[in-house]
């Protein structure tokens, strides 16, 4: 009861440890494990889901107590002054290494790894602060800070696990963002102190690049710190002042005084972390913690102690093996990330063997509307016809107006009035002024609409071919989509790469399987019965004999880890040969996607084209009616203007004086006239040409 309702203080930690130790004593004597005779139901509530989980296994009770011990330590650590580097990781580490992970999801391997690295990271932070306050050497401070980064990277990796994400829900994103912010922040602190070390060594070029890197990483941390408390923002601003000042000063000194070359950051030796924090140890058999064994009379204490020692030997074996596995996994993950090779899509040739669903959907939609293209073409043809009619009517009106202006100009000349210079329009006849004004208005509207009409025809011409293709047989659609043309050598390169990628996955799967087998073997390995009957002097020998059962699986794991180097070398060679094929496939995939998008766009543009075509028809039909009426009006006005000009001309002719009498001609001339005009009677009349000229006004005779 005390352990379930534990107070939130160090007394509570003591209670949990004592209860855990007594449970350890109990389970080594009474058969309360899973499916054993004295097993009883044990229920606890999962921390994240709130579900009640029940197991008939005394170890489940121990596991939950350990989890709560780690949680309580973390709470007390958060409340305490940050001067101690001891941390709550011990309880979670012991839980991970000694208990099954199948009891509940909040005790999964990933969640426990997350908890362990969060605790270690925060403890290392405390040590970093202490080192900075104690003015330790810059290089040591940089290494301590780099280790903080390493712990938080491990925590971030655990957070990115799909099981962890689904379990934590919304807080996973918040935690991940905070952890990433801390990664960048402490990386900036590490590089700040590497820059200070370079300054101490008078390496002024290195100093600049380290301070610059620190500044870049701090800026990333500031971006991720949005929404964090004001205390965090204030700390970031203070750090920005320090690093920004250091960088500006270092750069200025190097530019104007030292003139040292600034090396690239990746050419400098990376900062290796220094893990200096320690997890609070968990020893279930420490009498100073657990108190007297209340079951001491049931089983010899020596056997119990020996069992604990054997458990520690198993845990040590597991830690050694896991350290090697995790080191190799880290190399493998980094290598595969740099390659950017996804076994599922390394050739993506299957996508070219069929029409994508989105395109099939458009083809199906057009198959039930067979007249789609025909309707569009007809609609555009009708629009073109109406457009042409309007243009013809407006041109005829313009021609009538121009002809009327020409006639008016001639009349002005005949009447002796000086018309405006050529190119300057005459004021239109009174009846045509309104016609001219309306014609100009219609012409302006027509010109604007003409541009829209042209664009509409361009759009139709752009999409009509694609719509015909989508309306046609599917074979033609498939043939229109680009597909890669690979040579036999290219196909061989692809097959080889896929084979090696499959090998990489096989190596991963085998490694995970062997690790799981090892964990299960260690979990099930209970030699308590043997220990009770074994003499204390023979314990060490018994341990050695019992641990030999793990030799075979260790050999398999060593072989698996050793094979990684050869597999990655083969993958590197295969990837070099794959480069050209990869580029060609990427280009074809881009063309394929572009073609699909273009065809889909043409389908989606159809309704818009039909709508705009109908709007164009309605507009031009209306304009055609107005233009036709205006044409009739123009014709009538032009006829009236012409009649008016004739009347003016006749009036002018009547105003002219009669022809003046001519002087008598000499006989010779008169005779000649008689001959020319046909007789002496005709000689009394002037010649026809002279008669006509004399009848015209003087200003018209030149015509």
Automatic annotation (TrEMBL):
Supply the InterPro entries for this chain. Answer: ALIX_V_dom, BRO1_dom, BRO1_sf
Q: Which residues form the BRO1 domain?
A: 1-332
Q: Coiled-coil intervals in this record? A: 387-417, 497-524
A Gene Ontology cellular-component term? endosome
Q: Which UniProt keywords apply?
A: Coiled coil, Cytoplasm, Endosome
**Could you tell me where this protein is found in the cell?**
Cytoplasm; Endosome
Single biological process term from Gene Ontology: endocytic recycling
Q: Where is this region: Disordered?
A: 647-691
Key word Coiled coil present: yes
Is this entry keyworded Cytoplasm? yes
Q: What is this protein called?
A: PTN23 phosphatase
Instruction: Report the transmembrane regions from the record.
Output: none
